[in-house]
């Protein structure tokens, strides 16, 4: 097998995105014959077909897709290397894009983000709110550098940079009948109380669904939402109960408005906060600096849940 031609891989990438040789040539600004010639050379190098000339819906073969994954990882790693070389050793400037769940916002904004911006004034941040499922999609689409997720599903395409234990607790008003409970609750003990649940595209929603399946029961929420703030208000107002990691409502717990009660269910009790990126793809220097900063300055990422909150 001969050495791969980077230009041929670039043409293969254009072919994948365009769906046809002619459109790929137009996208690249070259003659179609040039694209065809380099694709043929690529096939000779790997000794296998890399595209199906008669299939306009999915032109790449399995070998072609393997080469495409290699090319895109190579480009991403090249961008990371150039980022390091390009006047970033002192982190004078740069761009970072991350996604995180709404439940992390208070912890992020309270001190860690403020101190990072003060330390690196030339770096520009983009933060997208996303549940665990949407955050993973943003990673796979190369839209963000890394994602801070809660209870994300296992994914072999992702690299886990940090993981901390933050169980999904039952959150109740301070005067609720369950608030005096000093042992973990079973899921069937909460069915008679007004309940709010979050959307299943979030990690919290995914875990509640798994817990219902493992306990062979179905919870009937009085309220469903995609907003952590709505859940907080629902409980703070004394309307009912919900599920949330204690740290998300730490201010309300310390003010005596809310209590966090542990659950017996192992799925809920072993929930984790994680920082994820695409496996095999180096973070840029600014993104790595932000990740290191968050690991040391945010409560969600620098330690497991504090016992005093529960």
Explained architecture:
One of its GO terms (molecular function) is DNA binding. Residues 4-61 form the HTH lysR-type domain. Keywords: DNA-binding, Transcription, Transcription regulation. This is DNA-binding transcriptional regulator, LysR family. Belongs to the LysR transcriptional regulatory family. With 310 residues, the protein is of the alpha/beta class. It has three domains: 6-84, Orthogonal Bundle (Arc Repressor Mutant, subunit A), CATH 1.10.10.10; 94-163 and 272-309, D-Maltodextrin-Binding Protein, domain 2 (3-Layer(aba) Sandwich); 168-269, 3-Layer(aba) Sandwich (D-Maltodextrin-Binding Protein, domain 2). It contains twelve helices and ten strands. Strands 2-1-3-10-4 form a five-stranded mixed sheet, with helices on both faces. Strands 8-5-9 form a three-stranded antiparallel sheet. Helix 7 (203-215) links the parallel strand 6 (196-198) and strand 7. Helix 1 (6-18) packs across helix 2, helix 1 (6-18) crosses helix 3 (32-46) and helix 2 crosses helix 3 (32-46). The chain is elongated, with a radius of gyration of 24 Å.
């Amino acid at each position: 097998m001969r050495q791969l031609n980077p230009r041929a891989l670039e043409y293969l990438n254009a072919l994948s995105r365009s769906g046809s040789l002619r459109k790929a040539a137009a996208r690249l600004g070259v003659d179609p014959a040039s694209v065809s010639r380099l694709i043929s050379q690529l096939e000779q190098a790997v000794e296998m077909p890399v595209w199906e000339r008669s299939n306009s819906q999915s032109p790449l073969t399995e070998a072609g897709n393997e080469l495409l994954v290699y090319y895109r990882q190579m480009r991403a790693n090249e961008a990371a290397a150039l980022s390091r070389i390009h006047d970033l050793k002192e982190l004078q400037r740069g761009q970072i894009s991350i996604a995180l769940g709404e439940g992390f916002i208070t912890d992020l904004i309270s001190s860690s983000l403020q101190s990072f911006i003060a330390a690196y004034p030339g770096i520009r941040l983009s933060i997208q709110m996303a549940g665990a499922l949407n955050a993973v999609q943003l990673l796979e689409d190369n839209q963000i550098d890394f994602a801070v997720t809660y209870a994300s599903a296992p994914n072999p395409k992702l690299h886990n940079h940090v993981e901390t234990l933050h169980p999904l607790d039952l959150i109740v008003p301070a005067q609720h009948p369950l608030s005096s409970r000093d042992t973990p609750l079973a899921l069937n003990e909460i069915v008679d109380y007004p309940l709010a649940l979050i959307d299943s595209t979030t990690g919290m929603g995914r875990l509640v669904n798994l817990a219902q399946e493992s306990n062979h029961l179905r919870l009937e929420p009085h309220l469903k939402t995609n907003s952590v703030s709505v859940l907080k208000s629902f409980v703070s107002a004394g309307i009912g109960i919900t599920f949330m990691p204690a740290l998300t409502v730490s201010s309300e717990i310390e003010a005596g408005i809310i209590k966090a009660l542990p659950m017996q269910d192992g799925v809920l009790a072993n929930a984790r906060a994680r920082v994820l990126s695409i496996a095999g793809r180096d973070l840029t220097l600014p993104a790595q600096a932000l990740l290191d900063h968050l690991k040391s300055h945010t409560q969600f990422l620098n330690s497991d849940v504090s016992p005093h909150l529960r």
